[in-house]
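Handoff note, outgoing to incoming analyst
You'll be picking up this chain. Sequence as last confirmed:
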Amino acid sequence: MKAHELYSAVDPAIVTQILDWFRANDRNVYKSAVATLADNRKLRPVFVQKKSMAEQYAWIHKTLRLKACDTIGEHLLQAYLMSGQQSLLAMFCDGMGIPHDGKGSVVGDLPKKLDPERLASTIDRLVDVFEPKLFAVYLHCFNMQVAGGWPELSEKLESDARLALA
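Most recent structure output, in case you need it:
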């Protein structure tokens, strides 16, 4: 799944949560995202900035659904997860036995294969700790880190109803 497909499938409340986090914690990223998305649509950023917050968020979400905005969409997801959801990333890496820096950033190479039993037990534990839709977004983003994703994780994302994006 590509970033634009993820934004098309995800619950809008998750996108709102992400954008709220950027506005509260890293306004420069939020402003840069608006400027880049507006430029991508051949608009001036002020066109978006003059809208109410709800309208800005709706416009951003709609724009991130476009294939042409895949790169900025993926960067926003990665920035949010790496800065705003470090405990989720660290707990997942711990559960999977993936070496990381304590904040969820993988140290060394990603594994070539994921242990299906370990994956299942990690998901079972974390889906109860974190908001399931947000956890599903993370798993999809993690799966984007290797070409074609890991078959074990792809199958779990498709078959486990708890990991629905919307």
